[in-house]
Amino acid sequence: QVQLVESGGGLVQAGGSLRLSCAASGSIFSISAMGWYRQAPGKQRELVAVLTTGGNTNYADSAKGRFTISRDNAKNTVYLQMNSLKPEDTAVYYCNARRNWGAPYWGQGTQVTVSS
Fold first, then answer.
1. 55 CB-contact burial (10 Å; exposed 0-12 / middle 13-18 / buried 19+)
2. Could you give the angle at the alpha carbon of 62 between the alpha carbons of 49 and 116, nearest 5°?
3. Residue 80 in 3-state DSSP?
4. Are strands 18-26 and 77-82 parallel, antiparallel or unpaired?
5. Buried b / exposed e across 67-95, counting CB within 10 Å, b at 16+?
6. DSSP 8-state symbol, 89
7. What percent of the chain shows pLDDT beyond 70?
């Protein structure tokens, strides 16, 4: 099984930046994509950004131009650089990892709060 541990969340003022990290461990072979989702209070969990092992990326429209997903394969870690943060970015951010088969894996989440 794959374990995912997020870090880097916190409180930041609007316009500021945060970098989230997701460290994967366990049976991490054949992971084909990792990504970030978020869930704000009262809302559905939504895709923020994904990155495949082939280097393809997808971003939510709200994240384009402000967020960047990247990875360090040697460290089994995926990052989400978040710039120009807005209060509406406030949510719990969850790391996700998947293979081309089986169920995806989820981290416990890290809280991001953006103040006005």
1. exposed
2. 115
3. strand
4. antiparallel
5. bbbebeeeebbbbbebeebeeebbbbbbb
6. G
7. 100
pLDDT in tens, 41-92: 999 999 999 999 889 999 999 999 999 999 998 899 999 999 999 999 999 9
Identity at 109, one-letter amino acid code: G
67, containing H or E segment: strand 67-72
Q: Which residues contact 1 (CB under 8 A, 6 or more apart)?
A: 26, 27, 105
Residue 79, both tokens = 């990052």
Residue 87 gets which letter from DSSP? G
Q: What is the distance in angstroms between the CA of the first residue and the CA of the last residue of the chain?
A: 40
- Are 77 and 24 in contact, with CB atoms under 8 Å apart? yes
